[in-house]
Write a structure and sequence with these properties.
This protein is an alpha+beta fold and about 90 residues long. It has a four-stranded mixed beta sheet, with helices on one face. The two termini are about 20 Å apart.
């Protein structure tokens, strides 16, 4: 599990000098299923896929909002997110 500050720092490092608009960000309880869905159903390139386990659902939403506000494309979860389960942030 990672803190909000750690995830944001690692995410920024992963994106590097590329344009945020070239990336997708999303939240899920099941990153493996999301990865398969994005690749096989949506035909998206997931070669840059990276996932972090967030400390809480509010932290995950805050991180997602921060990067969407800076141009990342949001991936809407196909599952209902609840605080009682682990939540993952993913980018690709």
């Amino acid at each position: 599990m990672f803190t909000k500050i750690t995830i944001m720092a690692e995410l920024k490092a992963r994106v590097g000098n590329t344009n945020y608009a070239a990336w997708h960000i999303g939240l899920t309880h099941d990153p493996q299923t999301q990865q398969i869905y994005r690749q096989e159903t949506e035909n998206q390139d997931i070669s840059r896929w990276t996932t972090w386990l967030a400390a809480s659902l509010p932290d995950a939403h805050g991180i997602e909002s921060y990067f969407v506000d800076r141009g990342m494309k949001i991936c809407h979860a196909d599952d209902d997110l609840v605080s009682s389960r682990d939540v993952y942030i993913y980018i690709f």
